[in-house]
Amino acid sequence: MAYSPLIQELLDALRCLPGVGPRSAQRIALHLLQRDRGGGERLARALEAAMKRVGRCTQCRLPTEETVCELCRNDKREQSVLCVVESPSDVFALEQATDYGGRYFVLLGRLSPLDGIGPADVGLDELERQLAGGEIREVILAVSPTVEGEATARYVADIAAEQGVSCSRIAHGVPVGGELEFVDSGTLSHAFAGRRSFR
Amino acid sequence: MAYSPLIQELLDALRCLPGVGPRSAQRIALHLLQRDRGGGERLARALEAAMKRVGRCTQCRLPTEETVCELCRNDKREQSVLCVVESPSDVFALEQATDYGGRYFVLLGRLSPLDGIGPADVGLDELERQLAGGEIREVILAVSPTVEGEATARYVADIAAEQGVSCSRIAHGVPVGGELEFVDSGTLSHAFAGRRSFR
Ligand SMILES: [Zn+2]
Ligand SMILES: [Zn+2]
Q1: Is CATH 3.40.1360.10 correct for A79-169?
Q2: Model-level pTM?
Q3: Pick from A9, A32, A54: CB nearest B51
Q4: Which intervals hold domain Toprim (chains A, B) (predicted)?
Q5: Which residues of chain B make contact with A93, given a CB cutoff of 8 A?
Q6: Where are the domains of chain B?
Q7: C-alpha of residue A77 to centroid of ligand 2, in Å
Q8: Helix (H, G, I), strand (E, B) or coil at A172
Q9: What's residue B176's pLDDT?
């Protein structure tokens, strides 16, 4: 015996969610069908709209459905300082933990030549263009202290030096090998304030 | 600063999934946006179709988009035996663990007069109609050994007795206070085979 075709397709489709196996797919599907159809329909509409219409901010690469994101449009933020992070969630973690008021650049990944992930794949070509533009005077590296993060930091420090842009990196205090987004606010705030020149 | 409207709506909508808080909503949304748009679109379509079109089997109350489910349409199954369970996942657990070949009746809940959940709310009126129909000779109770399950078992045993239908209940071995769907196959198979007359 089997679930009906529409339910089976829902069970299969739920497997695209990170951490969802056959058992939790069943639990989610039955929960929505029996107790929250409205929630399920809302999620369907939200998913469809987001998957089709969300792109990247042309300036900072944050995911957004707008050409330029709200953060980049905010001219009260310091335009000459650029904080380089690996993922959108790092931007939100830094915004919550620090009083940083400059701009961001989101790599959406880490340089990893061994895996065939080169500079252009994580937006480092676009970063280089922005640094060459002359408006940016300082780059703050807030990449994870992992092997790939180190390679990325090295690469950004080099292109910043070529353009005469000063470059600092947030202080250790972030556990080595750890993911930035899972660090508590206090540690992250401390690490950010204690950043040191990096070249 | 905030996520863009479409992303924020996706984060909010994801909260309808059981066990998903703000942090995992963010993780799921960014995963789909950055790595699996196809999966997200497929899930949107599957959710929409299932939420709008899945109803209940008119015979056994299993969720299905068909009027009568595949299991009830299967005339190779013994039509005179009816196994009463609390939830659709119990049907799947029993089908995997046992060689039971009769029909099912899914209550979709448990009798709980203190919470205002009466017989009609869990389909016991429909069950009574089916027992009065004369085709069913045996009812097997596979409800959980919880307080509400006991009340449900008692109720079903009474209406079965009124109609002269024999009634048995799957054996203990299922941990008392436990949920049927989380029991391992071996225990469940044993408990099912060791069912005893219940009146
Ligand atoms: Zn932006
Ligand atoms: Zn059915």
Answers
A1: yes
A2: 0.81
A3: A32
A4: 80-175
A5: none
A6: 79-169
A7: 61
A8: strand
A9: 63
